[in-house]
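Per your request, structure below.
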C-alpha cells in the first residue's frame, strides 16, 4: 500500500521512514513537509497539494507536532484517505473527536497510535495484572529534553504539552495495562518563566498511583513504572520493554526498537478489517492534569 508521511522531522526520520522501508505492507510514495525531505521520494508542501496530485496514495501518516496536526488530518480525511496519527493525537480532545466523526462519515480508517504500548513487555504486564487489584503504583518518567527534542520550541508553546509529551507515553501504557480505569486526582506542574508548557509535573492518580515527569534529567534516562498489587509486585523498566515480577526478570527485551514496525503492521490490519482504533484515554488524563494543576513558575528554559 502506498503511504504519504506528513511532517518530516525527528520522529519521521528516526522511526517512521525505517519502519515503512522495512515493512512488506508499505511503500513510502510521498512526503508533505515545508522543509523536510526523504531522498528519492516525491515531496509536497501541503496535504491538499499531495492528495490532488496523488489519488493513488490511500493512506496518510501524520508526524507533525500536535497543534498543526488537526488541519492536516482533516484535509486528508476529507480527501477520503485513511489516516494514522502520531501521539498525542491532537492538541485537544474535541479535535480528535471531530476527526473520529469525520473518518466515520467518510468510511475510512483513523488510527490514534500510542507507540509505547508496543514496547516489548507491555502485553505481558497487561496479562499479569488482569484479575489483580492495584494497591499502589509509581511512575518515574524523566528524560533530557535537549537530547530527545533538540530545539523544538513548539513543545513548550501552548498546546505543545511540555513534559506531558513524553509523559503521555507512560500514561498510554498505564491506561492500557490496568484492569480498572484510572483518573487524575491532583497535579503540580513547574512551568519555565519564559514558556507556556510545563518542564516537570507530579501527578496523583486514583488506585494510589503517583507519576513524576521531568524534562531536566541529565545522564541516565528513566522510563519506569511499578505497581504493588494484592497478588505481588510488577515493575516495567525501560519504557515498557523489561518486565519484573516480584523482583525477578519476567520477560521483555533491553531495547527501544520495534515499536513503530508494530504500529504500521497494526495500521495494515485495521485497513484489512475496515476498522478504526481511536483511544483518547491517555489524553484525558493529561487534560485533567492541566485542569487540576497547581502551577509553579520556575527558571527560564533555553535549548
Ligand atoms: P519535529 O522534529 O519538530 O518535527 C515535526 C515536523 O513537523 C517539523 O520538522 C516540521 O517540518 C513539521 N511542522 C509543521 N508544522 C509545524 C509547526 N507549526 N511547528 C513545528 N513543526 C511543524 O518533531 P518530532 O520530534 O518529530 O515530533 C513530532 C510528533 O512526534 C510529536 O507529536 C511528538 O510527540 C511525536 N514523537 C516524537 C518523538 C521524539 O523522540 N522526538 C518520539 C515519539 C513521538 P517542516 O518544517 O518541514 O514542515
Amino acid at each position: 500500500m502506498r503511504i504519504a508521511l506528513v511532517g518530516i522531522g525527528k520522529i519521521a526520520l528516526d522511526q517512521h521512514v525505517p519502519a515503512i522501508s522495512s515493512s512488506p505492507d508499505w511503500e513510502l510514495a510521498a512526503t508533505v513537509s515545508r522543509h523536510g525531505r526523504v531522498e528519492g521520494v516525491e515531496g509536497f508542501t501541503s496535504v491538499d497539494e499531495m492528495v490532488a496530485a496523488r489519488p493513488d496514495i490511500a493512506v496518510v501518516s501524520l508526524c507533525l507536532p500536535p497543534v498543526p496536526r488537526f488541519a492536516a488530518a482533516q484535509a486528508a480525511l476529507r480527501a477520503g484517505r485513511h489516516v494514522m496519527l502520531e501521539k498525542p493525537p491532537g492538541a485537544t480532545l474535541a479535535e480528535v473527536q471531530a476527526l473520529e466523526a469525520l473518518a466515520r462519515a467518510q468510511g475510512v480508517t483513523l488510527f490514534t497510535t500510542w507507540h509505547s504500548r508496543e514496547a516489548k513487555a507491555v502485553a505481558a504486564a497487561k496479562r499479569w495484572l488482569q484479575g489483580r487489584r492495584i494497591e499502589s503504583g509509581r511512575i518515574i518518567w524523566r528524560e533530557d529534553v535537549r537530547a530527545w527534542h533538540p530545539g523544538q520550541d513548539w513543545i513548550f508553546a501552548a498546546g505543545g504539552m511540555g513534559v506531558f509529551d513524553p509523559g503521555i507515553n507512560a500514561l498510554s501504557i498505564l491506561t492500557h495495562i490496568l484492569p480498572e480505569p484510572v483518573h487524575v486526582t491532583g497535579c503540580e506542574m513547574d512551568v519555565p518563566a519564559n514558556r507556556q508548557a510545563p518542564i516537570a509535573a507530579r501527578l496523583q492518580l486514583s488506585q494510589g498511583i503517583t507519576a513524576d515527569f521531568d524534562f531536566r534529567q541529565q545522564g541516565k534516562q528513566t522510563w519506569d513504572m511499578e505497581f504493588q498489587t494484592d497478588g505481588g509486585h510488577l515493575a516495567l523498566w525501560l519504557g515498557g520493554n523489561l518486565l519484573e515480577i516480584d523482583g525477578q526478570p519476567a520477560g521483555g527485551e533491553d531495547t527501544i526498537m520495534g515499536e513503530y514496525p508494530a504500529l504500521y503492521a497494526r495500521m495494515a490490519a485495521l485497513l484489512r478489517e475496515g476498522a478504526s482504533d481511536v483511544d483518547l484515554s491517555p489524553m484525558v488524563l493529561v487534560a485533567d492534569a492541566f485542569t487540576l494543576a497547581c502551577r509553579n513558575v520556575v527558571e527560564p528554559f533555553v535549548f
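Residues 93 and 284 are 7 Å apart (CA to CA).

Regards,
D.
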